[in-house]
Design a protein that fits this description.
Blueprint lengths: L1 E4 L15 E4 H4 L6 H8 L5 E4 L4 H4 L8 E5 L6 H4 L3 H8 L7 E4 L2
């Protein structure tokens, strides 16, 4: 699975998703892009966008042609706060489909 980490998600999360091809928005040169632009760029190269932006599903009209979005709802975007969500995140990465918006809470 090709995964894009939004710039608001720490790059350290990559270490905990070793079975997937994970890139950061910064690595792709897409840092500073607003969500709509980021989704348009991501849909051609990635299967999933992982973000902590809890309003993305209300701000964007995500369709079946778009990349899937997984929203991590943690206290902060630090790796310590995201770690408890990793087991559920990993499970969803095997079943998520384009156009899905999945929220993962502690």
């Amino acid at each position: 699975m090709r995964v894009l980490l939004d710039e608001c998600v720490t790059w350290e999360l990559r270490r905990y998703l070793p079975e997937h091809d994970v890139y950061t928005a910064r690595y792709m040169g897409w840092d500073g892009k607003v969500n709509g632009d980021l989704l348009m760029l991501a849909r051609d190269e990635f299967d999933v966008l992982i973000t902590v932006d809890q309003g993305i599903e209300n701000q964007q009209n995500i369709t079946d042609e778009d990349v899937a979005v997984i929203v991590l709802k943690a206290k902060s975007n630090s790796i310590d706060d995201l770690m408890p969500l990793v087991p559920r995140l990993t499970n969803h990465l095997y079943t998520v489909k384009r156009g899905d918006v999945i929220e993962i809470e502690p």
